[in-house]
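Exercise 7b. C-alpha cells:
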C-alpha cells in the first residue's frame, strides 16, 4: 500500500474539476493527485503548474515534453513517473519508433540532434549533483531558443517534484500506466516495484 492512501476523486470538487486535464493526458486521474488533495491547496497548485508547464508555447511539442519527463524520471528511478510519461508521450503523438527506442535516444535514427540535445539536458539536469555544463548549454543553443529552454526545464523541474513525491509515497500505478510501462519499457526490465500497491 502507498505511504498515504489516495482519497476519492469526489473529495474536493475544485481538484476534481482541474483534474479533468489528466483525462486527456493519461485517460484517468492519477493516484498522486488523489493523495495530494489531502491538502487541496497542494493538489490545485500542482495541477495548475502542470498545465502551465505542459502548454505548447513554441517548438517543444507535447510529445517531446513527455519524453523529456521520461528521461528525467528514468534518471531518478521513479517507475511511477516513467510509466506515466511514456503513456502520455504515446497519447500526445510521439512516433512509434521513438516510443519503442526511447532508451537508445542518443544513437537511434528515430531521434534528431535537436531532440537529443533536449533529452541530454533532461538527463544532466535530473542528476544529483546536477550535471548541466557548458557543453550541454552550447548544444541546446544550437537548436533551441531561451523560451524553449525554459519550457524544457519547467518539465524537468516538475518531474523532480513528482519523482520525489511518488517514489516516497510508493504511489500505486494505475492499470493503464502499467500497460504502457510494460509495452514500451518492459524489454528493458520495467517493473512496478514499490508501486504495486503492497507495503514497501
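Sequence design result:
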Amino acid at each position: 500500500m502507498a505511504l498515504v492512501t489516495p482519497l476519492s476523486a469526489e473529495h474536493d470538487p475544485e481538484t476534481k474539476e482541474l483534474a479533468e486535464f489528466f483525462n486527456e493526458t493519461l485517460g484517468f486521474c492519477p493516484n498522486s493527485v488523489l493523495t495530494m488533495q489531502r491538502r487541496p491547496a497542494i493538489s490545485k497548485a500542482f495541477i495548475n503548474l502542470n498545465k502551465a508547464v505542459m502548454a505548447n508555447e513554441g517548438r517543444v511539442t507535447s510529445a517531446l515534453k513527455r519524453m523529456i519527463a521520461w528521461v528525467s524520471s528514468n534518471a531518478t528511478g521513479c517507475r511511477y513517473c516513467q510509466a506515466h510519461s511514456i503513456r502520455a508521450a504515446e497519447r500526445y503523438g510521439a512516433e512509434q519508433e521513438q516510443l519503442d527506442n526511447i532508451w537508445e535516444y542518443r544513437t537511434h535514427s528515430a531521434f534528431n540532434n535537436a531532440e537529443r540535445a533536449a533529452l541530454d539536458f533532461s538527463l544532466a539536469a535530473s542528476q544529483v549533483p546536477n550535471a548541466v555544463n557548458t557543453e550541454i548549454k552550447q548544444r541546446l543553443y544550437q537548436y533551441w531558443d531561451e523560451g524553449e529552454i525554459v519550457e524544457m526545464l519547467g518539465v524537468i523541474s516538475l518531474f523532480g517534484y513528482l519523482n520525489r513525491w511518488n517514489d516516497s509515497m510508493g504511489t500505486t500505478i494505475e492499470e493503464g500506466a502499467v500497460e504502457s510501462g510494460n509495452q514500451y519499457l518492459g524489454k528493458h526490465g520495467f517493473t512496478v516495484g514499490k508501486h504495486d500497491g503492497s507495503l514497501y
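Instructor comment: The domain at 8-55 is CATH 1.20.5 (Single alpha-helices involved in coiled-coils or other helix-helix interfaces). The chain has a mean pLDDT of 94.
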